[in-house]
């Protein structure tokens, strides 16, 4: 529903934002093209523009021929236009009218686009939820010589559901993270998890937003560990990965201004950050 009117390109993500008519470019190409592209998941338009001209590789131009005719960047800020409204600004009446004639977004959208999450983690989660990560069961469909065995446990064929919900290597990481988040769930598939989250993690809820942040960071780190084992000799222990994820969450929470409240205090206590919460100013001392 949002179209990006490009100005200086500093706020517009090449893959995720709807800046070239017809929706985000990430949904107009294949998974392989996305992963092999020289343009990274969190790259913005201004990084592709130097010396008053665009610098797109031939492979990108081949995928998106319309990109050749786009105008140069300007000095104005990028603008996000609310398409259901003729003025481009949000209007509840126009939005309701638009929703009545268009299909609703997928139920997992709010899970991916959490305000706290960082782009590369959101991108990994976005691919995982849709079953679009290039897991070995999918790769082996194209190459019969490729082993399907999970490189984390070396016991079972690698699938999306095995890697994130059933693997003997990743399971202790999830259990530890759930304990940190005060959760006790045992989904067996992405479908189960999305359904569970959709019914229990409302938008705008502080703890739910942090839980989504943890989920996206865990998916990204587990996928990175899997890739490290396939393409390099690097490997980490489960406890090391758990600590890396919790440290990343703590660093992200420190960058967010959290107002003092009982819920915020409990949350920051759980993440050992209570000392950093922003307290309200002390009332003036009026004693004579
Ligand atoms: Zn495994």
What's this entry about, in short?
The chain has 288 residues and is mainly alpha-helical. It contains 12 helices and 4 strands. The chain has a two-stranded antiparallel sheet.
Can you characterise this structure?
This protein has 288 residues and is mainly α. Helices cover 43% and strands 4% of the residues. It has 12 helices and 4 strands; from the N terminus they run βαββαβαααααααααα. It has helices spanning 31-36, 58-63, 92-101, 109-112, 119-129, 136-142, 160-166, 171-181, 190-200, 206-231, 238-254, 262-270; strands spanning 2-5, 49-50, 53-54, 79-82. The longest helix is centred in the last third of the chain and has 26 residues, at 206-231. The radius of gyration is 22 Å and the shape is globular. Residues 141-145 have low confidence and may be disordered. It binds zinc ion (ZN). Residues 150, 152-153, 156, 162, 167, 169 line the site of zinc ion. Zinc ion (ZN) binds at residues 150, 152-153, 156, 162, 167, 169.
Number of strands: 4
How many domains comprise the coordinates? 2
List the total number of helices.
12
| Overall average residue pLDDT | 82
CA(first)-CA(last) distance: 60 Å
Series of secondary-structure elements, N-terminal to C-terminal: EHEEHEHHHHHHHHHH
Question: Strands across the major sheet, in which order?
Answer: 1-4
Which term fits the overall shape?
globular
Rg over CA atoms: 22 Å
């Amino acid at each position: 529903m949002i179209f990006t009117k490009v100005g200086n390109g500093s706020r517009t993500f090449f893959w995720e934002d709807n800046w070239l008519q017809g929706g985000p470019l990430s949904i107009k190409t294949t998974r392989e093209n996305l992963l092999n592209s020289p343009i990274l998941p969190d790259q913005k338009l201004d990084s592709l523009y130097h010396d008053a001209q665009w610098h797109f590789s031939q492979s990108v131009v081949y995928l998106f021929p319309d990109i050749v005719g786009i105008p140069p960047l300007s000095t104005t800020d990028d603008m996000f236009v609310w398409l259901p409204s003729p003025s481009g600004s949000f209007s509840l009446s126009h939005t309701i009218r638009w929703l009545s004639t268009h299909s609703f977004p997928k139920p997992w959208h709010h899970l991916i686009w959490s305000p706290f999450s960082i782009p590369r983690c959101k991108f990994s989660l976005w691919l995982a939820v849709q079953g679009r990560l290039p897991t070995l069961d999918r790769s082996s469909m194209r190459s019969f010589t490729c082993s399907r065995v999970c490189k984390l446990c070396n016991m079972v064929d690698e699938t999306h559901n095995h890697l994130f919900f059933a693997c003997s290597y990743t399971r202790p990481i999830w259990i530890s993270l759930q304990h940190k988040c005060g959760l006790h769930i045992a989904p067996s598939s992405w479908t189960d998890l999305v359904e569970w989250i959709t019914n229990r993690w409302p938008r705008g809820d502080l703890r739910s937003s942090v839980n989504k942040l943890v989920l996206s960071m865990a998916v990204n780190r587990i996928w990175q560990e899997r890739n490290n084992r396939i393409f390099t000799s690097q490997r980490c222990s489960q406890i090391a990965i758990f600590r890396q994820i919790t440290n990343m969450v703590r660093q992200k929470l420190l960058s967010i201004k959290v107002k003092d409240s009982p819920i915020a205090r409990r949350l920051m206590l759980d993440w050992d950050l209570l000392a950093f919460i922003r307290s309200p100013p002390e009332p003036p001392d009026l004693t004579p």
